[in-house]
Each structure stands twice: as structure tokens, then as C-alpha cells.
Amino acid sequence: WMRPNLHQSVFVMMPTLIFLVIPLVFLVASGEIDLSFASTYALAAYVFALLVKSGVDPALGIIAGIITGAAVGGMVGALIVVFRLSSLVASLGVLFLIRGIILVATKSRSITMMEELETHWVYSLLVGDFYGFPMQVFWAALFVIFSYYLFNKHKFGIHIHHVGDNYVSAEQMGINVNAVKIKAFMFVGMGAAIAGIFTTLI
After folding, report:
1. Angle value at C-alpha 77, between 62 and 202, nearest 5 degrees
2. DSSP string, 99-146
3. What digits encode the pLDDT tens for the residues 121-149?
4. Which one is predicted more confidently, 104 or 112?
């Protein structure tokens, strides 16, 4: 139980799971589900690694990765609300589509880029060490606080609650149900992208 190495491993990897799981709460609360987040996770990490390896500043690579995640989430959301597809079927299809694209693009090979990252300020800021604690623990804590505020206090979270409870009633109240659902899918994509980028940095 009192094994420092075990606790350190938990602190290193747990934040990644938090970035993945917390946004799914928003989506499930809205009455939808997204299975494509696993491939979004990989795609954003791939975009980030590819840009850094090609000489792009890691900070810009992070932004590009998060935009990629948001774009995939928006695409999945649009497929569901525009074409009235089941979120389970549509997201599962996107999951396998993106996975196939990544496998073909990478030829199942990993990209090593520690030389480009270890000396950059982004590395120490995001996954460095702060008095024995990995920095990603603090970023995950901030993400949880932000998500709590967004879900319980912000207009977006209130709309999520209304849409999930009764989307017909929400529409009658003037809430754009389709926009709310697409934003929820985009948030899931962004969370998956952040998780993928942190995993790449680790």
C-alpha cells in the first residue's frame, strides 16, 4: 500500500483518464453517447506528434491537436443531429474510420520526439515535477473545477440538463437543442484531444 512508485504511477496516468471521462458526463446528461473519443484521442496525439516532429512549436502543436479533437467532435455531433442517426452507431462508425486512417498513415509505427520536447517550456509546464507531484495532477484538478462550474453554474450546463430531461420542452423554451448537442460532442472531442496530448508528453 505504501509504495511511492505505485502512487507516482497513479498520479502520472490518472489525469489522462480525467480529461477523457469528465466531458462524457455532459454528453450522457444530454441524452447522447460517443464511442469515437478513443480514436479522437489517438488522432489528436498523432497530429500533435507529427507537427512537433516536423519542427512546429509544441505550443502550436497543442492548439492544433485540440482543434482537431473539437473538429472531430463537431463532425460526429453534426452527423447525429442533422441526419438523425443513432449516436451509438454514428460514433462507432467514426471510431473505426479514424482508427483505420491512423493505422494507414502511421503504418502502425510510433513517433518518438523526446529530443524536441524535453528542453521546451511546454514540457516542464504540463508534465514537469512540482515538489514531487507531476504537473498534470494540477492541470487535471483545474479541469475538474472548470467542468464543475460549466456543468452546474454556466448557461451551457443548464441547457445540457434541460435537453437531457426533455428535449421537446427545451425546444419550446427557446433552447437550440441541436447546437447544445454538437457543443457537447465538441467538448468530448477536446477532452479526448487533451488526454492524447498529455499521454504523448508523458
Report:
1. 25
2. HHHHHHHHTT-----HHHHTTSHHHHHHH-EETTEEHHHHHHHHHHHH
3. 888 888 888 877 888 989 999 999 999 99
4. 104
What angle do the packed helices 135-152 and 4-29 form, to 10 degrees?
Answer: 20
Helical axes 135-152 vs 177-201, angle rounded to 10°: 170
Model pTM score? 0.91
Exposure string of 58-79, with b = 16+ CB inside 10 Å and e = fewer, is beebbebbbebbbbbbbbbbbb
Nearest to 92 by CA among 134, 48, 36: 36
Place of cell 493505422: 103
Nearest 5 degrees, angle CA 18-CA 12-CA 45? Answer: 65
The owner of cell 508523458 is 202
What CA–CA distance (Å, rounded) separates 56 from 62?
10
Q: Are 46 and 33 in contact (CB under 8 A)?
A: no
User: Rounded CA gap, 169 and 176, in Å?
Assistant: 11
- 193, 70 contact by CB (below 8 A): yes
Amino acid identity, position 50? L
